[in-house]
């Protein structure tokens, strides 16, 4: 009986290791999503800055934050640097998307190998979510007639 109990413990340990590994993989994937979103916001900010200063006179004064120090430059000096930074961010985002796809594939293979299935929420929870839809805060809804 002792050997049978130790066998059950070993099986539980393996399941726990698999579960932890899977959770770590999912966490890494979520971190990639978060970082991609953050970098996409930076690209959006760079686009706004480029759109705002591009039509202006190139000799006009412009201020840029470099390493925590505000530096006075001209638009002619700042615009190419902002464009280069934006392009660099877009390249990093592209590489991160590739890493994300690899991670998704790795997780899918792991799920197939260990027959992992994600449990869905109960129907009761979904129904409650539907009932609470009208009480959601932070949502702006226009007039019903439009």
- Which sequence of SSEs, written as H and E, runs from N to C? HEEHH
- What is the percent of helical residues? 55-70%
What does the largest sheet look like?
2 strands, antiparallel
Q: What number of domains?
A: 1
Strand proportion, as a percent range, falls in 5-15%
Would you give the CATH topology?
Helix Hairpins
Q: Determine Rg (CA atoms, Å).
A: 26 Å
Shape: rod-shaped
The strand count comes to 2
N-end to C-end Cα span: 73 Å
The chain-level mean pLDDT equals: 83
**Helix count from the secondary structure assignment:** 3
Instruction: Give the name of the CATH architecture.
Output: Orthogonal Bundle
Secondary-structure-derived class? mainly alpha
Oligomer: single chain
Low-pLDDT runs? 1-7, 132-142
CATH class: Mainly Alpha
Strand order of the largest sheet: 1-2
InterPro entries: PFD2 (IPR027235), PFD_beta-like (IPR002777), Prefoldin (IPR009053)
Biased composition (Basic and acidic residues): 123-134
GO molecular function: protein folding chaperone; unfolded protein binding
Keywords: Chaperone, Coiled coil
What can be said about this structure in brief?
This protein is mainly α and 146 residues long. It is 69% helix and 8% strand.
Describe what this molecule looks like in 3D.
With 146 residues, this protein is mainly alpha-helical. It has one domain: Orthogonal Bundle (Helix Hairpins), CATH 1.10.287. It is built from 3 helices and 2 strands, in the order H-E-E-H-H. It has a two-stranded antiparallel ribbon. The longest helix is centred in the N-terminal third of the chain and has 52 residues, at 2-53. It is rod-shaped, with a radius of gyration of 26 Å. Keywords: Chaperone, Coiled coil. Residues 123-134 have a biased composition (Basic and acidic residues).
């Amino acid at each position: 009986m002792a050997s049978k109990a130790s066998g059950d413990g070993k099986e539980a340990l393996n399941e726990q290791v698999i579960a932890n590994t899977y959770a770590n993989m999912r966490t890494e994937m979520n971190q990639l999503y978060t970082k991609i979103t953050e970098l996409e916001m930076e690209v959006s900010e760079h686009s706004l800055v480029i759109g705002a200063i591009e039509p202006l006179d190139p000799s006009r004064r412009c201020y840029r934050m470099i390493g925590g120090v505000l530096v006075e430059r001209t638009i002619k000096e700042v615009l190419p640097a902002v464009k280069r930074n934006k392009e660099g961010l877009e390249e990093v985002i592209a590489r991160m998307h590739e890493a994300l796809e690899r991670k998704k594939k790795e997780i899918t293979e792991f799920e197939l190998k260990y027959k992992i299935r994600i449990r869905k929420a109960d129907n009761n929870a979904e129904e409650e979510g539907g009932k609470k839809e009208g009480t959601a805060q932070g949502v702006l809804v226009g007039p019903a007639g439009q």
